[in-house]
């Protein structure tokens, strides 16, 4: 049996940038990890996994609260096993993939078994790889396509999304809410949104908050504390710091 290294871990908030001489599968059962793979950034969540071929450069930073399965597969030993060709096909290119509920439930169950019986990591890893291979062979995405390396979805209506954001600037806005509005999974939404706008959804929300705030700063007599609350900042101090970073001057100076 191919010796595999499977571990359940928490990816912390340290930024890591590297490549390695083995294939790697990353699946999460909870939490979020921001991961850039060969320059393409996405989020690894319970709904979105990642396949990292040998020598592919990647960077990641966890949220400190994730529960993640990481599987390392030694490339030099693949030719010695019967399912080596299947594994090589899995890792034929760097990619993110949608994790359906059934696969997520299996991942969660196997993570628990791994924690209880670490000596069974090879058997658990092999089962996980086989389940993933079967799923990806059957996967037929219909809502998202890739054109010239860019993710396009007709469901991502930016004008409609902008209107919704403007109605909720005072509220907490989560990527999952925006994805639901577009009838996309959070992972697909994040990828498509970044390809369409050149920024992450949360960076876009921050930009929209601050642009709206600037209009209020320049054309209203509202206090800065009131404006901060209207555009979703918890206090005037954090609002002023974000405003200065974005516009290179303070809101009081802009006023």
Summary of the model, kept short:
The protein is an alpha+beta fold and 255 residues long. It is 44% helix and 22% strand.
- When the domains are counted, the total is 2
Listing every helix as H and every strand as E from the N terminus to the C terminus, the arrangement reads EEEEEEEEHEHHEEHHHHHHH
Instruction: Note the beta-strand portion.
Output: 15-25%
User: How big is the Rg?
Assistant: 21 Å
Q: Give the class-level CATH name of the largest domain.
A: Mainly Beta
Global morphology: elongated
* Helix share, percent: 40-55%
CATH topology of the largest domain: Jelly Rolls
The parts where pLDDT drops under 50 for at least 5 residues are 140-152
Give me the count of strands.
Answer: 11
Corresponding CATH architecture of the largest domain: Sandwich
Number of helices: 10
- Give the strand order, joined by hyphens, for the main sheet: 1-8-3-6-9
| Distance from first to last alpha carbon | 69 Å
Specify the structural class. Answer: alpha+beta
Biggest sheet overview: 5 strands, antiparallel
SSE diagram, text form:
Blueprint: E1 5-9, E2 16-18, E3 22-30, E4 33-37, E5 40-44, E6 48-52, E7 58-62, E8 67-74, H1 84-90, E9 95-98, H2 101-116, H3 121-138, E10 145-147, E11 150-152, H4 158-167, H5 175-181, H6 186-197, H7 201-219, H8 224-230, H9 236-247, H10 251-254
Antiparallel strand pairs: 1-8, 2-7, 3-6, 3-8, 4-5, 4-7, 6-9, 10-11
Describe the protein's architecture and organization:
- This protein has 255 residues and is an alpha+beta fold.
- The chain has 2 domains: 5-138, Regulatory protein AraC (Jelly Rolls); 142-255, Homeodomain-like (Arc Repressor Mutant, subunit A, Orthogonal Bundle).
- It is 44% helix and 22% strand.
- The protein has 10 helices and 11 strands.
- The chain has helices spanning 84-90, 101-116, 121-138, 158-167, 175-181, 186-197, 201-219, 224-230, 236-247, 251-254; strands at 5-9, 16-18, 22-30, 33-37, 40-44, 48-52, 58-62, 67-74, 95-98, 145-147, 150-152.
- The strands form 3 sheets. Strands 1-8-3-6-9 form a 5-stranded antiparallel sheet. Strands 2-7-4-5 form a 4-stranded antiparallel sheet.
- The longest helix is centred in the last third of the chain and has 19 residues, at 201-219.
- 30% of the residues are buried.
- The model is unreliable at 140-152 (pLDDT under 50).
